[in-house]
Amino acid sequence: MVILLASCRSTANGTPENTFTVPENLPPLISYAMRHIPDIPENESQIFIITSAASSLTGRDNPDDARRVLDLGENLIEGSSSRRRIELLIELSRNYVEAGVISQSIALLEQALTLTESSDQDQTRGRLVQEIITVCFSIGSDALDLLRQAVQKIYIIEDYRLRADLLLDTARRYQESGEGQRSNTLLQQAIPAASSIENQLARARSFSQLALRLTEEGNSDLALRYVNKSVEILQTDGTAAPMGSGIPGTTSDEQISQTLIFLARGGNAGEALSFSNMISNDRLRLNALLEIARAFYESDQLLQSDLVFERIFSILERNAPDELVVSMLLNISQTYFELNDPASAELYLEATESYFDRITDISQKDSLLLEAAILYARLNRLESALETIAQISDPFFVARGYSSVVNEQLNTLGSGDEGPSDELTRRFEDLLERALNTEQESSSLEDVLRNEIAQLYQRLNSFDLALGLASVIQDSYLKALTLSQLHAGLSGTDEEAAIIESYSRLLLP
């Protein structure tokens, strides 16, 4: 998100049309952040700073100031396209929920829901309605009427696959909020939508997703019926299915892969495995097999899980590109890490080491090395992580490697009051200094790194270093973002206040 918005910021021309007065008596870092907003050309990025500042204020139990900041955001929305206006209204409404201003949040969501009617694309309208529904659930009972209106919008979506997806997702949210009856109603209404999908592979996917949701709700008999319907389509072996997936930008292989993943997650890993050879694309087949192996593992069917892993390795040994081999080994390692099996995670992570020298695409190699370094850090293998970073060529990936390793190590240590030892803190600060000293191709990349590293310095209780980095960020958007993020992590000490005062001149526009 940071990189994307920073990139948008750097390519825009001209000056912003919208101006506003920064509210008085805001906390210093938030005030400094807000004063940079007029220098940010895009109103979308301006609003993102406002929502970031509001989140920081709310997080520090300062909802009144958050409301004053959010009020400024509404004045900036009008210059955006209809789609972006809806997205920004939804984003602001989320922040009003955080600040406790439910009535204003609902008012913005009502505007957003009305604007969805202007979209003539089912995919766009469906995604935006789904986001509105998500915020309504976060509000709770006060948004019930609006939630019902948003759910009604699902039924005018002409794409049956998308309609079924949205009904199933909303049913899940109702179930999670304790509304089992409403959830069941939507599941029943998803059945005709899924059954009306013309393309057979897309229909099989929706049936398998429906079966998963029914299984989650304990309706095993009905779930089995739709497992069987999905399997019946797959048993045609593609001969009765039209070419393609029936979904723009989606291949038949992707549809089959998603179907098998839903089947596996719903407790039907055996059925899913029997159809895995229908997928011709190696990467998609491997991803589906990994999900199937995971499903077996989680249900304590360890022998079956091992057999699926053997099938994965068999595919990899058949002249698979080295990049694909490494990518899959990393995915397997991450899967075992998530399953709380660090020994197996380390085994597969170490297996990647002999492949890196064979990869000729430097960009791909650097990306995979960075991923491996992060995994080593998650497994508390700091030295191995640093050795992996040493093999990276691109300076930005090197710097990102050092900062990511520190971030993962801090996450591993947890958020206890004591934090890392003095010795470890010095080690982490040394790694962050190395990251800052890597020579980057552009000042925008340097600013992205400064934003990330400033937050890590703050987590190390090195607030003076954090604010020092913020003071030298050149990009107005990233500078404002960094200041609002640093405010969220303040501990409120007199020492922090003195540091902020000492940097005040450098933090202003």
From TrEMBL:
Gene3D superfamilies xref list: Tetratricopeptide repeat domain
InterPro entries found in the cross-reference section: TPR-like_helical_dom_sf (IPR011990)
Domain of life: Bacteria
Protein name: Uncharacterized protein
